[in-house]
C-alpha cells in the first residue's frame, strides 16, 4: 500500500521553516558566557537567521490531483482544489535538528495535517508522526532572478519527508466520491504521506572577499516549495520508508551542483500489472523556483543481453510535477512484469545516452524504518530493518550492523561516536519471513566526551552522537548504497537529579545555554536570569511538562535530557536561588583545538541545510 498506491491525492504549495542556526556550531556552546546582540549579528555566533522561531508551517497548499484505487485519475472530483493546511486551533509545528553534530536528520514535531473544504470545514484531520528529512541533494542548478547576489547554499537543495498520519478524524466527505472511497480504504486508521521540499528562500550568501552578509534578505525569506502525496497506510508497514525497489543515482556526489538524478523508489502491483515509480525528489530544476529539467526520461530495465528495455517515456515539466508529485504508474504486460522480477529497474537519458539511476545489479536493499533516536542511560530502543530484493521481502537473511560516523558533522575538535561502549547492539540480525529484522539498542552513560578546552572557555555538549549503519555482510561497491540510510542516536550524559536543586548551583547551568543559543526568547523570557524565570515559572512548568511531541513543548529543540528536565521541574516547585558558586579557573586551551577553531572560523560558512533544519 503506502502513498505509492491508490487511492492517493497530490498536493502542492509552500512551507515556512523559520529556523535558527545559532547552535549549528560547537563553538557556540561555551561555559559561563552570555552573548550580545553583536554576537548574534556576526557569522561567528549568529551565522544565519539567529532569531528564528523554529516554526514549520504549511501555506498555500491545495489538492492538485487524485488517483483512484484502480490507478485511474479522479478527474473532476470535488477533492481537486481543496486546501491542505496545518493546525488552526493550536500552535504550529516545529523543526529542529537532532544535534549540533548531526544536522542532516532535521525533524518536524507536532504537525497536524488538515484537508479543508471550500467552506473551511475540516474534511480530514490527522497527526503527523515525527519524521526527519532524507535524501538531501543539490537539486536547483542555478540561482533564480530574485537573488541579486549569490543565494545562501540551502537555496539549491531538495529533500523529502515520509511519515504517517494517525488519529484520523473525518468530516462530511459525501460530496466527493474520491474521499468517500479514501475514507473506506483507510481501514487501519492510518494514512501515508510523503512530500518533497525545495526552492527554499534562505536569503543571500556571503561576499567571498570579506565574508560579509548581503542584507536585506529577499521577500519570502524562510519559505520554500513543497509537493506531496497522501495515500493509504497499513499497520504492518514501515512508517518512514517504503520497502519497494530502490534506485540510486549514478552520480557519486549529490551535494555538488549539476546532478541530473536523485534517489527513487518503485513498487510493482502484481495483481494489476502496474509499476509505480516515485520521481518526486529525483529530477532537478534549471534554476531556483524555475523550470524543471525537461529532457525525456526512459524508464525500463536491462535484460540478460545488457540491452535496455524501455517500459515508458516521460518528459517532466512543472505542470506534470505539481499534479502527480512526480509519481508515474506504468501498465506492464505479463512478459514485462516477469522480466523486471529479476532485472534492475533503470532510468535512462536518451539525450545524454546515459543511465541516470538504477537498482543495484542484485536488486538488494536494506533500510531502517525509524532512523533517529534520543536515549538516556539505561534506555532500550528498537527499530525494524527491512530487506528486499527487487522489491520483494528478503527472508532469513543476515544483516550486519556497525558503527558509522561518516554521516555526522563534527566540528571544532569535538569527537563523535565515542565511547562506543555507551551504545550496544547485536552486530548481526536476521530477517524473518517478511524480510524484517528487529534491531535493539541499549544506552549507557557516555560521560561528557564532547568537552573541548578553548582559549576563552570550554565547549561542553551534553552526551554523545552516534551513527549506526545496517548493510549486507557481502556488500560490494556495486551494491545499493544510500548515504542517508543509517541510524542516528543521541545518548545523553548521565545526570542525577539533586535532592533539593537550587538556581545557582543546578538550574542556571542548564537553562543559561538555552538563553544563549535561542535568542528569539529573550524579549519575553531570559532563561539565564533568575528573576525572569521566576516571573514566567508557571508557563515554563506547563511547557516542559508537555509530551515531547506537543508543538508547545519546551525546549523547542528537544535536546534537553529527561533527567535535566526533571531537575528543572523539581526546582520549579520550590525555586530556591541558592549561593553563587565560585568562578571556575581559567582553562588552558589545547593548542591543536585552538588552531582547528581558527581554521573553521576562517572557512566559508557551512553549506549545510538550514531549510530543512534549524
Overview of the structural elements:
It is a single chain. This protein is an alpha+beta fold and about 625 residues long. The protein has three domains: about 1-240 and about 585-614, no CATH class; about 365-490, Immunoglobulin-like, CATH 2.60.40; about 505-585, no CATH class. An eight-stranded antiparallel beta barrel has the order 1-2-3-6-7-10-11-14. It has an eight-stranded antiparallel β-sheet with strand order 19-18-21-22-15-16-17-20, with helices on one face. The longest helix is centred in the C-terminal third of the chain and has 15 residues, at about 505-515. The radius of gyration is 25 Å and the shape is globular. It starts with 7 loop residues before the first strand and ends in a 12-residue tail after the last helix. The model is unreliable at about 595-614 (pLDDT under 50).
